[in-house]
Amino acid sequence: MQAQDSLGNTVINTSPAIIQQEAQTKADSARMAYIAKRFNPQKALLYAAILPGSGQVYNKKYWKVPLVYGGFVFLGYYIDFYNDNYRFYRGELFKDLNTGTNSVGLPRPSLRTITDRYRRERDFFIILTGLWYALQIVDAHVDSHLKEFDINPNLQVRVEPSFKQDMLLGRQSGFTVSIRF
Question: What are the DUF5683 domain coordinates in residue numbering (predicted)?
Answer without folding.
Answer: 39-181
